[in-house]
């Protein structure tokens, strides 16, 4: 196996000196950063997604005749490594702008870097609301539906349930904390009769499933909100099923419908949970069908949500460059504000007021089909419907 | 009542795997005195192998065979590793084995991804044990019952092995007195190998038995190893019953902790570990063990001030470093600044290790306190950078003085573990006190003021501080205080008999090292413009150790060279390959085997050899 | 008026085992007193209590009338007690001269001093001490490389560095060549005589004991069973009984 799959071989420190003499004026360099070594389950499909988009763009003649080139870096899941990588890309490689990010804290760090160095940053995955609201800045845009949006989508469904007593389980870090807080707020607003009877905050990746399940069961909730994912989710599902936690209870769960997290569970996938996710097998829109075919032809495997994020992020980048007609930061920021484009999920807009895209998510219930976990009764919820108005969103941002 | 019982039983079930892994670690330490960092990697390997085997061998028999075979296979791999790697470095000072096994851990993380792919894998459930039994109105999974039985069962089997077989008697003899076993004519080499294999077998079995409960992931090694360290230290290194007791204690703390205050789970076990170490320094059932490894000091021949060639060299290097901004671009300067900060951090740890004689496993605590001290001063007090650069070290000094007071009472592995516990407590506070520290989102916008914002200016400022402090540390090394400190761990007995007060000296050294690490942290905050809990993480502490050991613990230049080599190497690797951990891990292993004195130490030894070949023969180093 | 060292009913027990029980004696300046007894008689325990390493279970220790019972080794050292150990304790990673220099720090109040280098500290005094024990030639050698006999001499220089009024020497000549032993013992006797240092030592080599001690105390199973001049002790029936059982008095130390 090759050790160096994507990155160019370059002589680290000397590079800064060498790039001054670049000859290919017709190449636009884009810096990309993600947690490749820490979270390959998400970031590998993500990489495949943006690579496919990149090839499509360049095959079609690039952007205004210029070829796009992506220089990709690993942040090892650490904000400080991400900042090193960002500095490397901007100061060393001379890229026009930055994109990527998975963890919320990495995204926030990159956003702050973008603000400090006045660099355009197009974030893909980081879900925290702070990216575009409390800590939003002039230079940062975000593609994926945020914590708030997903919470709003789920709260809408949860409000329809008869359940009055709710318990929550979420990983004990910013993502879990803010997901629970927003969900609570939105659901309580819709249903003042709801009672919050218990909460569990296991450390991310270290869920002590038996004890947590037992503790939640003891609070006798009617319904449960789950925000755990990955290995924690597997433990929760297994212990919960063995101990009868989910019996006669509704469960509403963040992210669980994403193939990244649902596939590993195979026939043990929970049944009847209300989840957000990506049911690529039920989507029939022509935009998605075209994407699906191209992806499967190219990689001989089904896409995951990461593929969609990577693909759409790259397409967004190209659209922004095309509209900006230049690669200086101000032109890019101006072009990105309010730009509209087509994604495999349909048309999306990066809102001018808060730089959040209106990419939506699918909500459905989980089921087991042919020994595999799937989402059924899926509905696409357009992101725009679950965001506060632009004026309201703008008021959430710091004045700068 | 039934809730409490159910919670108790859930805790017992979690304790089983913890005990298996911890008992293996404890056995290995007891006999070979190696703190096997790779123990978590073997736990993970056991789980992955079990996944592969049980998905191929179907049927109830196949499942259990698969679990057992996975553990056996891992044990054999462990034995081979012992023969190929550890045997070569038993003579090296303590901590080098830890460093080497850390390298193995790094490499394994990438190897596992290469072999099994990046996805979380969910193995089959245990045939016949998928249901649950109603107990007092609560459902208890039958697999949990199985685990609850397996823990004490393995404890009994180990007891029988240790007390009723010749192998076991030799093992126990070796745990108590290694020389004697050698004298008995027992082949010590193979005793070590078999103990290592046995320990790894237990770790892998612990991992394999997790298969029906959780997903197999490439991050499970690190999540278990820290907890297992905690268990082994609480139970007493080398004590198998202690490991059992501590595993149950830790698992029950987790189980009941979440009932009382769910968010405290992160910090609770470390608090307990710190308390146990303060009250019973050798753990619940541990005994005081003499160090079997050569102490770090064995590497250090009498210190000597620099030869004039060396002084000239330092001057030249400093001059070149000052001129660097004229030759490097902004990126290069960024890397250079990061390296300077790493030098400061490594230098502080090196001072503690070579002069203070103690290897901290949680030095990141003071780096982090420095970083957060600076950031908090900026965010909450609106302090300018000049003031924040003082506030950071000040907070670090407070932390180091407080924790150090407890830590210096211990030595060796126990000291390392207590420092680790304190660092984890600080980390948990930074991670969980979201309203003040921003939790894992960190604190952003800690940028330097306009005058220092330009890359060259910030670089020069960092260079000035780093050079001044490192030279200061070096001076301190040769000062009366440095020697008194050195005396205190060279021979505590003698130092005390001369009226020196070792604990006070070491406490001051600990605080000085903390202050310097704090300065590094504060600079780091302004360099990155932000602070994150990573800065206090285990990774940061280990980075420091690797830098010092890589460079050579014996000389101040070791910290400098180690920091440059490690930091530049890992930044470069990270930009060149997705398998940086594999490369870095193997590199560390090779360096440890080839240059047990570290880079600078080996250079120094070579230089001394050259000098002593000249007519004026002195005693060779 | 009081003696240099007064020990009163000193006792130490571990659990139910009495290692030392009710030992009392006094020692005058310039006296060279040997404490002998078979292995396990409690000699080392006694020593360790005298210099503060072990806290006595009962009894009093006074130096020049000052009660120093229960003080730790650093405090005892500051009061003027020097000590050598059965297995030499020196600073292996330092040179011979540095060993002595560092030993002078605490008394000079410079142990926490960050100023100047140790190399420039008390060079003359260190040289004098090394000359006294005949180690001046080896001043620049690493202590870790010394032969055992040299280490013993270095340790004596270290112990003398604090200008002790009382010197405790635990088997000062063990492991030395016969010639070296004599030199060391004579040095010890000379120091006691010229500087008025009180010396308490334990020794297995009975020739050394009978030649150099001004007084001999015999310890058996934690109790003093006889005290007197060497000549007296040599003829004491109880002592003979104790030692003949072990076959030690005139032979080589047993296993």
Automatic annotation (TrEMBL), chain A:
Residues 1-25 form the signal peptide. The keyword Methyltransferase does not apply. The keyword Signal applies. Residues 27-364 form the Leucine-binding protein domain. Keywords: Amino-acid transport, Signal, Transport. InterPro entries: BCAA_transport, Leu-bd, Peripla_BP_I. Gene3D superfamilies: 3.40.50.2300. One of its GO terms (biological process) is amino acid transport. Belongs to the leucine-binding protein family. This is Amino acid/amide ABC transporter substrate-binding protein, HAAT family. It comes from Arboricoccus pini.
Automatic annotation (TrEMBL), chain B:
GO terms for biological process: amino acid transport. Its main location: membrane. Pfam families: BPD_transp_2 (PF02653). One of its GO terms (molecular function) is branched-chain amino acid transmembrane transporter activity. The keyword rRNA processing does not apply. The lineage of its organism: Bacteria, Pseudomonadati, Pseudomonadota, Alphaproteobacteria, Geminicoccales. It comes from Arboricoccus pini. The chain crosses the membrane at residues 64-86, 98-117, 143-162, 190-209, 229-251, 258-279, 306-324, 331-352, 388-406, 412-436, 457-476, 507-527, 547-566, 586-608. This is Amino acid/amide ABC transporter membrane protein 1, HAAT family /amino acid/amide ABC transporter membrane protein 2, HAAT family. Coiled coil: none annotated. Belongs to the binding-protein-dependent transport system permease family. LivHM subfamily. PANTHER family: ABC TRANSPORTER ATP-BINDING PROTEIN (PTHR11795:SF442), BRANCHED-CHAIN AMINO ACID TRANSPORT SYSTEM PERMEASE PROTEIN LIVH (PTHR11795). It is found in: Cell membrane. GO terms for cellular component: plasma membrane. Keywords: Amino-acid transport, Cell membrane, Membrane, Transmembrane, Transmembrane helix, Transport. It is a multi-pass membrane protein. The keyword Kinase does not apply.
TrEMBL record, chain C:
It holds the Pfam family BCA_ABC_TP_C. GO terms for biological process: D-alanine transmembrane transport; L-alanine transport; L-isoleucine import across plasma membrane; L-valine import across plasma membrane. PROSITE patterns: ABC_TRANSPORTER_1, ABC_TRANSPORTER_2. InterPro entries: AAA+_ATPase, ABC_AA/LPS_Transport, ABC_transporter-like_ATP-bd, ABC_transporter-like_CS, BCA_ABC_TP_C, P-loop_NTPase. One of its GO terms (molecular function) is ATP binding. Residues 5-246 form the ABC transporter domain. The keyword ATP-binding applies. GO terms for cellular component: plasma membrane. Keywords: ATP-binding, Nucleotide-binding, Transport. The keyword Nucleotide-binding applies. This is Amino acid/amide ABC transporter ATP-binding protein 1, HAAT family. It comes from Arboricoccus pini.
